[in-house]
Amino acid sequence: MVALILDGTSIARELESGLITRVENLKKKSIITHLVVILVGDDSASEIYVKNKQIMCQRIGIRSTLVNVDDDISQDELERIIDEYNDDDEVHGILVQSPLPEKIDGLKIASKILPRKDVDGFNPINLGRLVQGDIGGIIPCTPLGIIHLLEKTGVSLEGKRATVLGRSRIVGMPLSLLLAMKGVDATVTIVHSRSVGIERICSDSDILISAIGVPNFVKGEWIKEDSIIIDVGISRIEDSGKKSGYNIVGDVEKTANKIAGWITPVPGGVGPMTIIKLMENTVRCSELS
Amino acid sequence: MVALILDGTSIARELESGLITRVENLKKKSIITHLVVILVGDDSASEIYVKNKQIMCQRIGIRSTLVNVDDDISQDELERIIDEYNDDDEVHGILVQSPLPEKIDGLKIASKILPRKDVDGFNPINLGRLVQGDIGGIIPCTPLGIIHLLEKTGVSLEGKRATVLGRSRIVGMPLSLLLAMKGVDATVTIVHSRSVGIERICSDSDILISAIGVPNFVKGEWIKEDSIIIDVGISRIEDSGKKSGYNIVGDVEKTANKIAGWITPVPGGVGPMTIIKLMENTVRCSELS
After folding, report:
1. How many CA atoms lie within 13 A of A220 on its CB side?
2. The domain spanning residue A36 has which CATH number?
3. I need a surface site. Which of A138, A159, A179, B209 has the fewest CB within 10 A?
């Protein structure tokens, strides 16, 4: 048996036409959906991420504005820029690309973006709604994309054991809340760097989502047969045999493919789903504006 | 072996003197710590809860005001009352007693209370900070009380398996976030009414917290030896042999006492801890005012 592939690239592509229609409908009402991306500094990985988001905006028909500021910007100045776009009725979504320079307080920045323009869903008001079991706010993109992939399997999650490796505010924590919520109804275990007996927890899991960014951390033999594996990790490891000099690998060993029932590829799994959900959040913010 | 008792009544009492001192120090700065409790309708259980909170305020030296409104109050009118106290600099904490009449939107009410006066910690801004791993906000009282009880055992929670039965926005969800947070570091499983194989999950748990309100749901034989059992449930069951006509029972069977290492009594475990943490939150809001 070989696992079925949860092909994020093609699933994301299927969602594009629906978004294009929604953006066109907004245009008929003279609303030009507009996303502002703020990039601090010139980190090359961040530049690629931002570029990919802008390319996707273009495909969907979303106007995007890149605001690239110097990495010695002050907290106040960055907040002032956010405020400017908060006040601008022609801007529907604002995101500040991570990571930020150390001297910038990222939590304060997340709080500064108006909840209704918070396309990343990182404002505590949006995150807090998840704790309340309320999905009416803006939900972070990666957890949303993962839920979409899980739904694509057609497997009911009700009562299933779901394990989330990683407890970040961006993926692990909000995803755990979503999975445990009424209507999804998985039995969720949150595992992290201090956890003990991770191997056994994984082998008990009908759904395993790894978001720790440690290459090949999850061994093939830890996987439960026929389980669903979602690999959020994406790391580079050196490979002198490759022209690029590196390989892109996930958190989960390749051998898992022979044991799992469903698995996401890396790259091409969670990554494209995150971007398409960012587009969906932007269109939603525009519709609600 | 018999479990050691986590005596919430006496642990809560130990905390009183510290709070009394803090309230007195505030008085020296002419700040009279003041809690406003809004009670909608005349539910007899709610009246008792509110009364107990007011008695505790008196013991600590906190001024309390009870605002009892009719149960046919409109959403707008209730929000208007909250706004009035939000704007009143002499009020440091506001709580609206649950349950509310069905036609009142409780989530909107929780959002209406200013985060810095939100002594229950139910405003999404305060809940969202927990998702961010930030404990600088106001944390709901029952989860705070439970963490305090767990600390009292002196057992490190790092890497331990902790299971939370129940996924409410008041107890289960915020408590799960707190337990999984950096510095507490438990491996947390969230179990609820749709979960399957609950018995086995319980028997794997070093820490078991039940907050479902189903009398004797957790059987003694499910308990792991020497584990810590926190019983949040408090239910009445008929007992014609009693003068009152009923018994107060928790979610966990009494036989657990012979297997667990630590256990909370019902009543006298989590209940008094919840009230003292409400006092602590009120004093904190007053200090931060």
Report:
1. 9
2. 3.40.50.10860
3. A159
